[in-house]
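Page 47, continued from p. 46.
Same chain as before, 326 aa.
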Amino acid sequence: MTVLLAPMEGLLDFVLRDILTRVGGIDRCVSEFIRITDQLLPERVFIRIVPELLNGSRTPAGVPVRAQLLGSDASCMADNAARLAEMGSAGIDINFGCPAKIVNRHGGGAALLQDPEAVGRIVAAVRRAVPAGVPVSAKMRLGFNDDALAEDCAQAIDSAGACELVVHARTKADGYRPPAYWERIADIRQVVRLPVVANGEIWTLADAQRCREVSGCNMLMIGRGAVADPGLGWAIQGGASAALTWSQLLPHIDDFWLLVCSRLDAKSRAGRLKQWLNFLRRRFPEAEVAYQQLKTVNDPVLVGDWLARQSRIAALTKSQDLHWLL
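Result:
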């Protein structure tokens, strides 16, 4: 199995990519989308969203990060893709899946799935603009209001020269409501030549196994499932025995907090930790306790003190366990 980490605006940024790839089980990441309108963006904008560009387009753990572009102007998308290629991006991914109203209202993201020809023009322009050795991939939903054009859009992406296609198995109208229609990914696989990656509603190892069976894909992309269970990638690749425990996760939460404090402004820090804990409590009872204790705390100093206490408690518990073992 190959496991990719999904792009998720406002959630899976470079900080969480760093931590989740330290945990392991992730073969490649895709960045949050970089919005392209009518101009060639300066390098500092790309670096702000994808700081891994300064590290060979890899996270500190060495996992490649492919920058994702979102826009509807094929020529401008191509120009920005060329600049990213010059900066050493591990590849260019194109967003045809964002369901946000403000993005769709301006003709980007999932709105483009109403026009397979436009989808093909954008992919072809980007493919022509970057060197042959730079991968160009795309991520799409099944459609906008329905999935009637799913196969047409996938074929347009394939014919335009993309090397890989991620399919989020829901339409824009479906949003993030379950279920994900993995069987439609199997349909798409029958009409394209390029490798297809299955995405959507993969929260557990059992979900991943079922998705693989239904979609026929040996490549999966996980997003919210990896945020809720950072060991999910390992579990998918190595079986249930690879599941992460809370005591194993706690040092990574400490590292996350250190990164948040060093890279984000003070007003955002407590909220970022609580955002992650809110996901983690789906998998870990201890995260529910932590979330309840911190949900009204916004002072970064108090949050830091709380985390320090948890680390001391964990260390004391571990030493007591070792004492009894001895």
